[in-house]
Amino acid sequence: MYEPYNAEMALTVGDLLKTPGLDIRLMAGASGTSGPIRWVHVSELEDPTPWLKGGEILLTTGMGIGKTPARQRAYVDRLRRAGLAGLGFGTGFSFRSIPKPLADAADRVGFPVFEVPYAVPFIAITEAVFTRLVAEQYDLLSRSLESEHSLTRAVLEGEGIHGIMGALTKATHGWALLLDLHGSPVAAVPASARSHLPLVLAQLHSPRPEGSRFSLSVVERRQHVAIQPVTAQGRIEAFLAVGKKEPLGQFDRIVSSHALALLALELAKARAVSEAERRLKGDLLDQVLRGAMAPGEARLALERVGFDLGRPLAVAVFAGPTQSAESLALAAEEVLSRLDGAFLSSARDDVVMVVMQPEGPGFLTELRSDVAARSSGAVLAGAGSLVPFEQLLQGVREARYALQLCRTEGRLQAEFADLGTYQLLLSLQDPEALRTFADSVLAPLDRYDEGHGGDLVDSLRRFLERNARWEAAAKDLYVHRHTLRYRMRKVEELTGRRLSSARDRMEFFLALRARDLLLPGSLKSGFPGLES
Description:
The chain is 47% helix and 15% strand. A hairpin with a 5-residue loop joins strand 6 and strand 7 (185-189). It has a 5-stranded mixed beta sheet with strand order 1-5-4-3-2. A 5-stranded antiparallel beta sheet has the order 7-6-10-9-8, sandwiched between helices. The relative contact order is 0.06. The two termini are 70 Å apart. Helix 14 (456-465) packs across helix 15 (470-477). The chain folds into 4 domains: 7-132, Udp-n-acetylmuramoylalanyl-d-glutamate--2,6- Diaminopimelate Ligase, Chain: A, domain 1; 158-270, 2-Layer Sandwich (Beta-Lactamase); 290-419, Alpha-Beta Plaits (2-Layer Sandwich), CATH 3.30.70.270; 431-517, Arc Repressor Mutant, subunit A (Orthogonal Bundle). It is elongated, with a radius of gyration of 38 Å. With 532 residues, it is an alpha/beta fold. The model is unreliable at 1-8 and 523-532 (pLDDT under 50). The longest helix is centred in the middle third of the chain and has 40 residues, at 250-289.
């Protein structure tokens, strides 16, 4: 069984000096011999750094180091700043020994310089380094393949996301967190990995010019953490964070990359299953509400999906001015799926309807807040009373009316019990009856406004909403109070009612409320066959 790859296994200058049969000696910079060697390069240029990437051992006979101490010190400084691993100085050519100014400069900055005697060809050093690097790469490839097979087996054996995460942490000897797009943990291995959630969320929420589509690495609280988006079919599904106390090496990155691919497949599969279930549940709800199923068949269907019809049901309706019904339905289902109990939901027109079984009334505030947190804009919600299965359609109507109250009065949520005077109007259960009542009171004002371009209806509404306070209502209408008094006298003249009468004011108020309920969408359920 291979051990996880560690950067300390890389070939260092110290390892190279111990290579059997290689007669080379360290002459300066002993404190820097632990640096890893990436490559070997031979150059006699005064400044070879433009052709180097860092991590190389540079072999030279000294033709380019210069003749003066200042130039030799500058030569060492250039190599150090370029990130080279060390310098192999071939003696017996331009120099019989390593110049003292060069060696002193190397000692001061901890830059390894070793002597390569005339009898040792540079190719011997190159071969020694390349042999070791190839062996390391083969070892890395072998261990990576074994770990990738472990991750793949977790998928094939049906262990799913948690199996992948377990195999990943076993290979890297670290921890892993998988977060959904809202920052909630989908999986944490080991369980203690949840303690790193604040660190990961802080990084995900920090503004970055490239956004969240690219990976990032951080070192914080003695943890080296890599965070990467899990992308399936061009869409970010989640974020994977992998961390450990030691720096993440090439092996960790390779295994994490394979885990990302497998997690993307698992999440895409889960999304496909979820969307299929959502469509089936939506179809079932549509059929129940439009009466396409016999009552007995409908009861049996709801019980099959987990409803306890011995308990009451509640209907909630959600709407968002900026979101599509489909995206709002997805947000609602993500919230409801984390709660106990069965539910059905369906998106139709501009609303999302949900049937669920809460513990009791008063559930809507928290539910709406959670749905809004997973949505891209404001969310309004209305809920009906808790009703038995036989009165489900009544619950639908009540929820729709409560939603309309939110729209007309600027509320975020309302349950049917909050409707107040609306409940009296809704007891008519007939849009035509509401329309007849409203017109009997307001029709004379409608005709006047249409013929004279007036604002009697709106002025009356403001006057009543301000509890007959002239100054406040006039300010809302941006008119002088004398103008408002003239309009109210006109209202009395046209309707034959008196605003000084509490009874007449109540009739005006109820007529305006009836008009609110008759606004488009307020008396329709959004589902075929369901009209109030």
